[in-house]
Amino acid sequence: MPLPRTRAVAALTAALITASCAGGEQVPGRQYPWHTGIVATTFWVGEVLDPDASDGSQVISTYDAAWQEHYGGCDGVLVDGRCETEPRTAHNGYFPTRMAPRENPFYLDLPFDDLNDPIAFAQRADVVPWSRDPGYAGRERDRAFSYLKNRWVQLTRGDAVCYGQVQDAGPAEYHDARYVFGPDDARPVNTRFNGAGLDVSPALNGCLGFTRLNGAQDRVNWRFVEESDVPGGPWRRIVTTSPPTLY
Fold it and tell me: DSSP of 26-62, one letter per residue?
């Protein structure tokens, strides 16, 4: 039996197909809509924001039950046993200074958890623009497969242009399909952290020239891009290709 579809999901699906040319094999150079002036906070592998919250630790991610282990350790510096962030600069490609990552340090999250959130899981084949591409089509019921993990995103802030891969979901919301995939530059439904619509890694924080290491004031523009459209840069030194690791 097909998954239930509300009028809102059906309307969003039609708009997405028109906007992104989804509906068959992958389209080189496919254009995705921009999301503009979005508050971005910073998170990092190994951060523990709230040990009592189900989503308060970055030792794990929604797509990786052993994220810190697979990444290679704390993506920052240890201070009294806590994993803290650190400034990142261009001299070493915005890579961490105290460890050698085994996965791409240019990572981010978006508020659509297509594996663990039941609403997002039910919607994903309808709202994810590339759900009909080869390698994705027909896998909407596969709970070991993510449509979001490892996808590429272009981000800009002023003159800075950087790229990263989706490796987690959030902040605070997990099925905000209209904001994440819609063509009309909708605002995030999240109201926490100054209404943030994504978290970015320390590498992206440095690359984009954020004013704060760990704040909720910086704003970015972002859009999905196909991997074939990602240019060379420090974000290409290590590309994460690992599938989800189940809990």
Answer: --TT-----EEEEEEEE--TT-BS-TTSTT-BSSSBT
